[in-house]
C-alpha cells in the first residue's frame, strides 16, 4: 500500500481575537497518501484553508501533530521551515500572486534562485515547467500581458519547477472563468496522474472538486465526511 | 535572473517614486557635500607643506593691537629664524564693499616670497616689485577677477587705517596650495602713509626647520614679556584657526544645518521604503511561502534601500565634486571662496551618510515584513 505522505493526528488550531479564542480546527485526524489528489471543501470559516496552511508549513497548529513526509513541520525553526517549503511544497494561490515586475520566465525561476542550480540548469527547469503548462511562447510576457488563466498556469509552473512532492492549491479556480478553470484543473490532474504529484486543493466549487480523487468536507473546524480511501484515511 | 536583478526590478517598479526619491536624496547630499566642504574650509583652511615652517608673532592681547616695528630686529637674530617679515592686514575697500573680499597685506617685499616659497612669481616681476615703493604683487585669481594687468593702478581705501593706498600692479603670483587672492605691497609705503609710526600688525617668520619651532616660540614671547606690547607667537596653522574662531561658532551653525538635512533625508527615504514595502507585503508573504527566509527578505529590503540611497549619494556627492571642479567657484562666490576642494574625505563622509540612510530606512519596513506571518500577508490579498 502507498504510504501516507501527510499524517495529521488530533490537530487543533485556535486563533485569539482579543479575549476570545476562536477554534479554526478541532482535533482533526487525517492521512493523505502519496500521489493522491485531495479536495478540501467546506463553507467559509470551516478551517479548510487553515488546514492547508498547516500542511504546507506556513502556519503552525496549536496542538496535535502534522507529519509531512515524516517531518513534523511544526517543530522546525522559521529558517528550516522556509527551506523545507522550498524543497517540498509548491503553492498555487487563488489570486495567482505572480510578481508583477517579473516576466513569466522570471516568476517561474524565482524559487530556483534559492537552490544551488546554475543559470543554465535553472533555464532547463524553467523551460520544461513552462512547456508543461503550455506557455513556452509566453516566457517574456509580464503578468499584466497575460489572461487570468495564463497567469494561473504560470503560477502552477512556478509551483512545480522545484519538483516538490506536494502541491497545495488554495481556491485555484476562484478567480477564473469556467473555461480557464477547467484548463487549470486538467493541468493539476495531469500533474497528479502523470507526474505523481500529491495535490491538496481547497475549493468551494464542486466542479473543481470533481477532478480530485477524494474529497474531505470540513465545517466549523471539524471533519464532516471523507469521500474515499477508507483503508488509509480515518477521521474523528 | 539574479538576486541583484530581482532587487533592481523591485526598486524600479514605481519609476516616478524612484526618480523623486533619488533626486531628493541626491539634492540633499549635494547640499551636505557643499556644506561639509565649506565647513572644512572654515575650520581647517587649506595649508601647504611650507606652512609647517612658518610661525606668526602678534600682540598678546588681540589682533587689533599692534606691535613695535623694532621687534623685527631682535626676532631676526634669534637662532632658528631664516626670514622674518612685517605683515600687516590693510583691509581696504576696492571700488565697493562687495568687491573687496580679498586680503591686502603690507610686507617686506624682499623677504615675503622667501617666506612663502609656494607663491610662484616671475623673478623679473619680483625685482620690479622690490624696487618700486608703491608696487604690489597680486594673486592670479584676484587679477583675473578684476582684469588687472602689469602697470595698472589700483586704489585701496583705508577702513581700518587712516590712509588710502595708490598701488601699481608689478606682477602676479600663482600657487598650488596658497590662497591666490592676496595682494602684497611695501610695508615702508604703508608706514610712510601712516606718518612713520613704526607699527606692525604681525611678524611672519620662516624657521630653518620644524624642530626649532617650540623653543623659538618660547624665546620670542619671553623676549618681549613685561613690555608694553607682549607677543603671542604660534604656528601659522594655530594662527589661522584662531582667526577663524573670531567669526563665531560657525561649526555649530553649519553642523546644525547638516543635521537637519540628514534627518530630512532619513524621513524621506524611510517613508519611501515603508510605502514600497507596505504595498508589497503580499508579495513578500508569497516569497516567504516559496522558501525565502527572514534573513533573505531583510537582505532584499536592505539592498533596495541602500541601492536607492547610494545612487542618490553618488549623484549628489560626486555631482558636487564635478561642479566644484568645473565651475569657477571663486568668481561665482564673488571672491568669497578662493578655492573649493571637495576632498576624498568629504566624499567618503557623504557616501557613508547615504549608506547609513539606506540601512536605517530599511529597518522599520524590514521589521514589519518579518513580523507579518505568511498567512496574514496572504490574507491581505484575499
The whole-angstrom Rg of chain B is 29 Å
Helix content of chain A: 25-40%
What's the total number of strands of chain A? Answer: 10
Average pLDDT taken over every residue of chain B = 89
Text of the CATH class of chain A: Alpha Beta
**Measured distance between first and last alpha carbons of chain B:** 29 Å
Structural class of chain B: alpha+beta
Low-confidence stretches of chain B: none
Count of separate structural domains of chain B? 2
Sheet of most strands of chain B: 10 strands, mixed
Number of alpha- plus pi-helical segments of chain A: 7
* Beta-strand percent range of chain B: 15-25%
Task: List the SSEs and their pairings.
The complex is a heterodimer of chains A (236) and B (382).
Chain A (H helix, E strand, L loop, with lengths): L3 E14 L2 E14 L3 E5 L6 H9 L6 E6 L2 E2 L5 H11 E4 L11 H6 L9 H14 L15 H13 L5 E5 L7 H18 L2 E6 L2 H4 L4 E6 L2 E5 L10
Parallel strand pairs in A: 3-8, 3-9, 6-7, 7-8
Antiparallel strand pairs in A: 1-2, 1-4, 4-5, 9-10
Chain B lengths: L2 H9 L3 H29 L10 E6 L7 E2 L2 H6 L4 E9 L14 E4 L1 H7 L4 E2 L1 H9 L3 E5 H7 L6 E4 L8 E10 L8 E4 H8 L4 E2 L1 E6 L5 H11 L7 E5 H10 L4 H30 L1 H10 L3 H33 L2 H4 L11 H28 L2 H6 L3
Parallel strand pairs in B: 4-9, 6-8
Antiparallel strand pairs in B: 1-11, 1-12, 2-10, 3-4, 3-11, 5-8, 6-9, 7-8
Helix pairs in contact in B: 1-12, 2-10, 2-12, 2-14, 10-14, 12-14
Molecular structure report:
The complex is a heterodimer of chains A (236) and B (382). Chain A has 7 helices and 10 strands. By secondary structure, chain A is of the alpha/beta class. In chain A, strands 6-7-8-3-9-10 form a 6-stranded mixed β-sheet, sandwiched between helices. Chain A has a 4-stranded antiparallel β-sheet with strand order 2-1-4-5, with helices on one face. In chain A, β9 and β10 form a beta hairpin. In chain A, α4 crosses α5 and α5 runs parallel beside α6. Chain A is globular. By secondary structure, chain B is α+β, with helices and mostly antiparallel strands. Chain B folds into 2 domains: 174 residues, no CATH class; 163 residues, no CATH class. Chain B has 15 helices and 12 strands. In chain B, the strands form 2 sheets. In chain B, strands 1, 3, 4, 5, 6, 7, 8, 9, 11 and 12 form a 10-stranded mixed β-sheet that branches. A two-stranded antiparallel ribbon of chain B has the order 2-10. The model of chain B has no long low-confidence stretch (mean pLDDT 89). At the A-B interface, α2 and α3 of A face α1, α11, α12 and α15 of B.
Amino acid at each position: 500500500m502507498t504510504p501516507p505522505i501527510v499524517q495529521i493526528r488530533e490537530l487543533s488550531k485556535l486563533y485569539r481575537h482579543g479575549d476570545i479564542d476562536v477554534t479554526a480546527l478541532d482535533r482533526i485526524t487525517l492521512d493523505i497518501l502519496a500521489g493522491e489528489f485531495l479536495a478540501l471543501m467546506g463553507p467559509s470559516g470551516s478551517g479548510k484553508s487553515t488546514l492547508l496552511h498547516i500542511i504546507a508549513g506556513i502556519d503552525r497548529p496549536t496542538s496535535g501533530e502534522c507529519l509531512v513526509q515524516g517531518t513534523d513541520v511544526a517543530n522546525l525553526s522559521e529558517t528550516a521551515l522556509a527551506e523545507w517549503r522550498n524543497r517540498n511544497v509548491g503553492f498555487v494561490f487563488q489570486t495567482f500572486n505572480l510578481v508583477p515586475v517579473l516576466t513569466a520566465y522570471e516568476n517561474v525561476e524565482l524559487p530556483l534562485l534559492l537552490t544551488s542550480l546554475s543559470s543554465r540548469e535553472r533555464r532547463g527547469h524553467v523551460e520544461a515547467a513552462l512547456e508543461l503548462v503550455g506557455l513556452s511562447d509566453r516566457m517574456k510576457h509580464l503578468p499584466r500581458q497575460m489572461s487570468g488563466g495564463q497567469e494561473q498556469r504560470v503560477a502552477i509552473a512556478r509551483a512545480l519547477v522545484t519538483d516538490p512532492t506536494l502541491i497545495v492549491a488554495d481556491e485555484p479556480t476562484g478567480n477564473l472563468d469556467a473555461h480557464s478553470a477547467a484548463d487549470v484543473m486538467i493541468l493539476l490532474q495531469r500533474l497528479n496522474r502523470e507526474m505523481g504529484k500529491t495535490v491538496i486543493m481547497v475549493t468551494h466549487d464542486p466542479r473543481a472538486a470533481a477532478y480530485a480523487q477524494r474529497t474531505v468536507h470540513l465545517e466549523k473546524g471539524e471533519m464532516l465526511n471523507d469521500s474515499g480511501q477508507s483503508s488509509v484515511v480515518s477521521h474523528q | 535572473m539574479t538576486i541583484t536583478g530581482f532587487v533592481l526590478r523591485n526598486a524600479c517598479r514605481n519609476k516616478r517614486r524612484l526618480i523623486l526619491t533619488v533626486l531628493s536624496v541626491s539634492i540633499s547630499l549635494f547640499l551636505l557635500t557643499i556644506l561639509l566642504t565649506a565647513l572644512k574650509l572654515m575650520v581647517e583652511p587649506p595649508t601647504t607643506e611650507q606652512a609647517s615652517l612658518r610661525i606668526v608673532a602678534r600682540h598678546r592681547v588681540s589682533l587689533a593691537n599692534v606691535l613695535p616695528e623694532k621687534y623685527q630686529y631682535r626676532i631676526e637674530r634669534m637662532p632658528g629664524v631664516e626670514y622674518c617679515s612685517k605683515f600687516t592686514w590693510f583691509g581696504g575697500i576696492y571700488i565697493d564693499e562687495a568687491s573687496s573680499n580679498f586680503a591686502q597685506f603690507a610686507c617686506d617685499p624682499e623677504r615675503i616670497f622667501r617666506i612663502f616659497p609656494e607663491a610662484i612669481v616671475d623673478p623679473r616681476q619680483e625685482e620690479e616689485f622690490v624696487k618700486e615703493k608703491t608696487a604690489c604683487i597680486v594673486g592670479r585669481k584676484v587679477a583675473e577677477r578684476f582684469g588687472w594687468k602689469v602697470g595698472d593702478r589700483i586704489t585701496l581705501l583705508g577702513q581700518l587705517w587712516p590712509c588710502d593706498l595708490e598701488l601699481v600692479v608689478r606682477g602676479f603670483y600663482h600657487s598650488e596650495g596658497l590662497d591666490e587672492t592676496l595682494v602684497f605691497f611695501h610695508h615702508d609705503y604703508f608706514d610712510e602713509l601712516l606718518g612713520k609710526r613704526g607699527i606692525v600688525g604681525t611678524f611672519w617668520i620662516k624657521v630653518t626647520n620644524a624642530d626649532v619651532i617650540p623653543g623659538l616660540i618660547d624665546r620670542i614671547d619671553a623676549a618681549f614679556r613685561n613690555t608694553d606690547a607682549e607677543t603671542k607667537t604660534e604656528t601659522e596653522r594655530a594662527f589661522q584657526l584662531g582667526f577663524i574662531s573670531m567669526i563665531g561658532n560657525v561649526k555649530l551653525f553649519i553642523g546644525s544645518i547638516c543635521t537637519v538635512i540628514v534627518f530630512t533625508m532619513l524621513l524621506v527615504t524611510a517613508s519611501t521604503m515603508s510605502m514600497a514595502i507596505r504595498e508589497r507585503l503580499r508579495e513578500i508573504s508569497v516569497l516567504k511561502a516559496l522558501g525565502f527566509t527572514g534573513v533573505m527578505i531583510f537582505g532584499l529590503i536592505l539592498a533596495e534601500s541602500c541601492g536607492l540611497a547610494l545612487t542618490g549619494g553618488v549623484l549628489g556627492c560626486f555631482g558636487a565634486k564635478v561642479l566644484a571642479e568645473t565651475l569657477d567657484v571663486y568668481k561665482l562666490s564673488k571672491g568669497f571662496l578662493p578655492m573649493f576642494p571637495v576632498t576624498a574625505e568629504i566624499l567618503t563622509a557623504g557616501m557613508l551618510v547615504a549608506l547609513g540612510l539606506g540601512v536605517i530606512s530599511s529597518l522599520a519596513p524590514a521589521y514589519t515584513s518579518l513580523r507579518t506571518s505568511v498567512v496574514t500577508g496572504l490574507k491581505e490579498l484575499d
